[in-house]
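[Discussion] Sanity-checking designs against the backbone

I'm trying to build intuition for which residues belong where. Below is a structure token string of 222 positions. I'd appreciate it if someone posts a full sequence so I can compare it with mine line by line.
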């Protein structure tokens, strides 16, 4: 069984008289532990696709199966359970809390789950170490570079040991060398944790490093 399966997914928006197809007949599946780059130009449907897999957005037609379970038949509680416990999100703008230190930012998802502070801190320090930022654990995000902030965001996404990591353009605000470093860290953690990674980019220069690429163009897989 595939971990994630999309069957003939369509998503369209009505803008006045015209229809915009964000996704058109998209069928894809992802195995456990797979590392996939979703790439394509601006407006090709990358965010829409990732949001469907994250159950943030719903298709107009088609079926999404997660661990064989039809998402459209899940209750709101089951969906938010899946989102909270099985998915780690990494965003383009890092979304760190400015008044918290790096380690406090990483600890947050655990504290929301009522994990004891000492354990949350220990786990968070371990993740910061994995992204090479142990020494900056007590710094606030505004004392860090973009690449360092994104590494904190990766540590935060992984601290709950998710089954799926969704990263929507995690390198969009970074220079090429830093972007490559971020991809390498994600690949290392993908190997180590066996989590399924999906990341989107419009930067073709990052694609040589990918085992699997899905190219979108105007909502189609090409
Ligand atoms: N809420 C919405 N209402 C109308 N159209 C939308 C909406 N959200 C997305 N779209 C349209 O759907 C298409 C796909 O958008 P999407 O955000 O998935 O693209 P993307 O590949 O992530 O682009 P980018 O690289 O700029 O982030 C675009 O044509 C977009 O304008
Ligand atoms: Mg997008």
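Best answer:
Here's mine. Compare freely.
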């Amino acid at each position: 069984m595939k971990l994630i399966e999309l069957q003939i997914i369509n998503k369209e928006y009505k803008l006045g008289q015209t229809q915009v197809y964000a996704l058109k007949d998209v069928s894809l599946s992802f195995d456990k532990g797979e590392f996939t780059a979703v790439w394509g130009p601006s407006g090709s449907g990358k965010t829409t696709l990732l949001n469907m897999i994250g159950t943030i957005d719903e298709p107009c037609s088609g079926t999404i199966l997660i661990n064989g379970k039809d998402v459209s038949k899940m209750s709101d509680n089951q969906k938010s359970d899946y989102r909270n416990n099985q998915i780690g999100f990494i965003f383009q703008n890092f979304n760190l809390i400015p008044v918290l230190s790096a380690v406090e930012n990483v600890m947050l998802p655990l504290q929301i789950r009522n994990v004891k502070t000492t354990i949350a801190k220990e786990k968070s320090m371990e993740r910061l170490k994995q992204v090479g930022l142990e020494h900056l654990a007590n710094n606030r995000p505004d004392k860090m570079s973009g690449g360092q902030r994104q590494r904190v965001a990766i540590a935060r996404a992984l601290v709950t040991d998710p089954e799926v990591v969704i990263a929507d353009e995690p390198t969009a605000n970074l220079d090429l060398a830093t972007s490559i470093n971020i991809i390498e860290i994600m690949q290392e953690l993908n190997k180590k944790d066996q989590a399924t990674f999906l990341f989107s980019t419009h930067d073709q220069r990052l694609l040589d490093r990918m085992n699997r690429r899905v190219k979108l163009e105007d909502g189609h897989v090409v």
